[in-house]
Amino acid sequence: MDLDFTPAEQSFRAEVRSWLAEHTPRHLPSLDTADGFAAHRAWEARLAAERLSVVSWPEEYGGRGASLIEWLIFEEEYWAAGAPARVTQNGIFLLAPTLFTYGTPEQRATWLPRMARADDVWAQAWSEPGAGSDLAALTSRAVRADGGWRLHGLKTWSSRAAYAGHGFGLFRTSGERHHGLTYFLFPLDDVEVRPIAQLDGEYGFAELAFDGVFVPDSMVLGDVGQGWRIAMATTSSERGLTLRSPGRFLATASRLVDLAADAGDPVLLDRAARCWTEAEAYRLHTFTTARRLMDGTEIGAASSLGKVFWSELDLRMHTLAMDLLGDRAAGTPWYDGFLFSLAGPIYAGTNEIQRNIVAERVLGLPR
Amino acid sequence: MNFTFTDDQADFGLVVRDVLAGCRDDRGAAAWQRLGTLGFFGMLVDDSRGGLGLRLADALPALEETGRAAMPGPVVDTAVAGALLLDGPELDKLAAGALRVAVADSASTAADADLADVIVAWPRVASRDAVSSQAPQLRVRLEPRPGIDPARPLFTVTLDGDTRELTGSAVTAWRAATVATAAQLIGAARHLLDTTVAYARERTQFGRAIGGFQAVKHRLADVAIAVEFAAPLVHRAALSYELPSGERDVSAAKAAANDAARLAAEAALQVHGAIGYTHELELRHWLTRVWSWSAAYGTSATHRARVRALVREVPRWP
Prior knowledge:
The structure holds 2 protein chains of 2 kinds.
Chain A: H1 7-23, H2 34-49, H3 68-80, H4 89-102, H5 105-116, E1 122-125, E2 141-145, E3 148-155, E4 166-172, E5 181-187, E6 192-196, E7 205-216, E8 220-221, H6 227-239, H7 246-263, H8 266-294, H9 303-325, H10 333-343, H11 351-362
Parallel strand pairs in A: 1-4
Antiparallel strand pairs in A: 2-3, 3-7, 4-5, 5-8, 6-7
Helix pairs in contact in A: 1-3, 3-7, 4-5, 4-6, 7-8, 7-9, 8-9, 9-10, 9-11
Chain B: H1 7-20, H2 29-38, H3 56-68, H4 75-85, H5 88-95, E1 101-104, E2 109-111, E3 118-121, E4 124-127, E5 139-145, E6 154-160, E7 164-165, H6 170-202, E8 204-205, E9 208-209, H7 214-240, H8 246-272, H9 283-295, H10 300-310
Parallel strand pairs in B: 1-3
Antiparallel strand pairs in B: 2-6, 3-4, 4-7, 5-6, 8-9
Helix pairs in contact in B: 1-3, 3-6, 4-6, 6-7, 6-8, 6-9, 7-8, 8-9, 8-10
Pfam families (chain B): Acyl-CoA_dh_1 (PF00441), Acyl-CoA_dh_N (PF02771)
Domain Acyl-CoA dehydrogenase/oxidase N-terminal (chain B): 29-81
Protein name (chain B): Alkylation response protein AidB-like acyl-CoA dehydrogenase
């Protein structure tokens, strides 16, 4: 057991740090506005030109073939530099791992390089009006057509869909509950997109209405009827380290410690020091998880432990920032971060569902 | 970087677990004997001195197992503090499992001092064995004082007459022993979680196992999360306790381990209900041990004050 970065890892960190110090944009408008969306895509294209947008992917798809540990180093540096949130995150962190595992060589070659350059931005389409935490209750369906499928139904709370060009989600091709679901990729051109304003007033969500939208067979991901299993692979990425790397929480905790220390109140500083300790705990835990993944271990249900931990830590940190700043928080990244942190215990499976998963599938308590 | 335990490190822990299984007595004499034959007490002692030559980090799974078993006796004071502070014939005896050490805190309180051959009271050390002592006029006085855990009695220690100065670094040994106690707390918390899950699967009310109720599930999930994220802080502190960030890391680890273990104890008692509040079950041994160890080598309040004071002083990441 050690915590020693190799010389190669150290020089990678130095390269990333120095490039980001020079190129990180000061402030971009919200990625859930038309201008902000375009500005974020341009920034990510810039990252891609340096092969820094998806460092852990193989070189043929635009990455550097970096290890998970190096990816974590990249993330630490990215967030420490104050770089923008990733507009491509649903694609690169959720869809891409699924494409690597279940996609055909053609699908990977078609979609991954475009995703790495932010040519395509992907929206996720899991939830429906009647299927949120109980995702298996979904009723959207796909009907066999010549050379493909026609999609029908309604998806909602679809992140990034207001401005994105593509989506991915589950549709019923047969059966009930978890059986007979199929994982589809689809362009949003023929889908009716109804943007939904979030708490911050921006259009981070959309409702997607499908009225016989045609998708070719080449956009079915994995086997027909196997969608649940494939989607669970994605959601465990979403809950685990690929969506929320420790770097972002470390950066927040570090700024919070400075904010609290400047306020001179030992009670508030104590809360900040606890948050910092917890962010460190998540970082260290992730180093262990990354090594297990590199050694071929599946993380599975254990990713739910982390999802509860990081989402509630993020909320505690931003709640403390609100206590420290009061209404001076308005108009600063702390308030935007506070609103965003409130979503953490909801998305990627509510924390109530995550605690059920921990209890039933990690601890072995009865269903 | 590989922040996971090697097979050797994990296996040593499993051997200790097997050896301690079903081996309970009031003050741990049988367990001590069995661990002694494994070389456990000399695990941090150089192999040239008859020890196993392990680093503290190598020994964590084994230390955690002594916590899982709530093993009585001055395990950490001997195998960690004593191993880093003593030398000469005393160290040889310690490595052979034939010498026990008790360490007094800043209030001159030492646990299990009645079992100890050597008493450390910073910055001095004294042997209780008047015959073999090089200071025959030495007198050690032990006065029993109230403690939380009947199997871990406390004593006020007074060292009179000639005593020796400690040879090793007191600060380093204190930090290492703090990390080791934190590892024991993680082990005790894992035991509490495992036995409480087992109880919740068996105990039925309203016609079903109580572990099927979400209120119970979520409480136990919270314990699992607290233990899962306290443990890496303990592992890190075992690697960094001698570095400039060591003081901060050790305090962060002990506070997190204290809190996770106390959460586990509280949930264990609540889920067991009334029977947990009695002497009918063995649960009480782990409850009092968790409360007692949370105070040993510093309460959460003490350690959190240290983290607070140091959080801006040392680099936060590379």
